[in-house]
């Protein structure tokens, strides 16, 4: 039971990360060109890797907090996905703020980035959270 929960949460994380990467790359390429997209991805490579690793680690932590007899509700998938999104955003922002080539000097510089991620990532996260909640609720033991 716990392995199925972990597999579902990791699948949702993977779909979220791949979807966000493809969508962001597409729109950035449309508005700024391929050369600029490659440059920004090279600049953000390490923070993106750390954000993904932190998201998977937090997903693993969440998986291990549930017992095998836990009864999931559909709304909990949405909460899990938004928590994972926020943890990934703040992990990536922390990594970017520590790196030498950044423009993030104060805590107030983080809020616009979080708002952009929530504005563009909110709907896909909501849809994926509903999918996850639906799948987790079907795992409820009888």
UniProtKB/TrEMBL annotation:
Residue ranges of the TM segments: 12-34, 40-63, 75-98, 110-132
Keywords, ordered alphabetically: Membrane, Transmembrane, Transmembrane helix
Superkingdom, taxonomy of origin: Bacteria
Full protein name: Uncharacterized protein
Native organism: Pedobacter ureilyticus
């Amino acid at each position: 039971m716990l392995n199925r929960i972990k597999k579902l949460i990791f699948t949702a994380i993977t779909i979220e990360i791949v979807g966000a990467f493809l969508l962001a790359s597409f729109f950035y390429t449309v508005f700024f060109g391929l050369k600029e997209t490659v440059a920004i991805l090279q600049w953000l490579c390490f923070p993106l890797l750390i954000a993904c690793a932190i998201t998977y680690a937090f997903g693993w932590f969440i998986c291990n907090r549930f017992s095998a007899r836990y009864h999931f509700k559909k709304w909990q998938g949405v909460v899990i996905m938004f928590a994972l999104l926020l943890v990934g955003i703040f992990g990536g922002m922390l990594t970017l703020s520590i790196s030498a080539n950044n423009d993030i000097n104060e805590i107030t510089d983080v809020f616009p980035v979080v708002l952009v991620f929530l504005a563009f990532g909110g709907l896909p996260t909501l849809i994926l959270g509903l999918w996850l909640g639906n799948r987790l609720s079907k795992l409820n033991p009888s």
